[in-house]
Amino acid sequence: MKAMTDPTDPTESALRYRRFAEEVLAETRRIALAQFRQPIDIQTKADESPVTLADRSVEAHIRARLGAAFPDHGIYGEEEGQQNLDARYVWVIDPIDGTRSFISGVPLWGTLLALLDAGRPVFGVIDAPALGERWIGTAEGCFASTGAGVGSGQGSRCTTSGCTTLAAANVSATSPDMFSGEEYAVFDALSRRARFRRFGGDCYSYAMLAAGHIDAVVEAGLAPYDYLAVVPVIEAAGGVVTDWKGRPLGMGSDGRVLAAATEALHREMLAYTASLA
Predict the structure, then answer these.
(1) DSSP output for 208-253
(2) Which domains does the chain have, with CATH numbers?
(3) 271: exposed, middle or buried (C-beta count within 10 Å: 0-12, 13-18, 19+)?
(4) Which of 25-39, 136-150, 257-271 is least confident?
(5) Which three-class secondary structure state does DSSP give residue 28?
(6) Which residues touch 54 (CB under 8 Å, ≥6 apart)?
C-alpha cells in the first residue's frame, strides 16, 4: 500500500482513517475467525494473562499495514510493544480484546484500534468479528454497521441511551476479578444502586453503551490498548468516558475507566469512584 499523508481537514482525515481501518479489519477478521472455536495453542504471558496465535497474528498484520501506510506514525500494541511513541500520531492496537472469551468460544471478543493525535484519542474502532458488527467513532459521529454493511463505508449513527440516574441504569463490568479489594468495594456500592448490573462483555460492553443498550461501564486494571479505542466511539455517540477521578483517558492513565451515557449519570457515579485514592 502506498504511504498516506495526513490531511489537514478533520473531515477528510476521518474519512481516510476510516477507509484504512475498514480495509485492514476485513483482513484481520479472516485471520482471527479462522482460529476461533478451533484447537489452538494457548500460552501465558509474564503478567499471567493468556495469549494465542490469533492475538499475535492479528497484531502483526495490522502493524505491517500501518508501517506501509503511515511510516511516520507511532504504534503501541499489546503483543509487540511500542515504536516511535514521540510521534504526533500514534496507533494503539488490541488485536484480541477478550482473549479469555476467544479461548472459551464466546463471541464477545473484538479487535480495538485507536489513533491518538498528540496523545488524544481522535479515532477509534471496536470490531466484533464473530458477531459481524463494528463501531467506529470519529469527529463526524459514531457509526455502527452489521452484516453486509460492515466495511461498506456505510453505517447507522448510534447514540447513547440518555439515562441520567444511577437508579435507572444498567451498569456493566467485564469481571469482578479485575478490581482490587478497595476498587471492588467502590464498584459494589455503586452498582448495587443501579437498576441492575451485568458482568461479562469485554470491549462489547462499550459498544453496547455507544448503541444505547447499556448505560454505564465501570472497570479497572486496564492497559491503554484496552480503553483508548473506546473513547472516540463513546464520545461520538454522546457519552462520557474518563478515569475514576473524571480525568481524560490517555496513554498514562491508571487503568480505571468510568463510562456513562450522559454527563448527569457520569457525575453521579463519580461521587463513588472519585473517593478512592
Answers:
(1) HHHHTS--EEEE-S--HHHHTTHHHHHHHTT-EEE-TTSPPP-TT-
(2) 10-157 (3.30.540.10), 166-273 (3.40.190.80)
(3) exposed
(4) 136-150
(5) helix
(6) 31, 32, 35, 36, 40, 95, 96, 102
As given in the structure block, the three cell numbers for residue 26 are: 476485513
Listed range (38-52, 80-94, 164-178) with the worst mean pLDDT: 38-52
b/e 67-105 (16+ beta carbons within 10 angstroms → b): eebbeebbbbbbbeeeeeeeeebbbbbbbbbbbebbbee
Q: Which of 99, 65, 97, 61 is nearest to 80 (CA)?
A: 61
- 101 near 86, Cβ under 8 Å? no
With CA atoms as reference, report the closest residue to 216 among 224, 205, 226, 225.
205
Cell numbers that stand for 111 in this block: 479487535
Measured distance CA(240)–CA(263) in Å, rounded: 6
* pTM score: 0.92
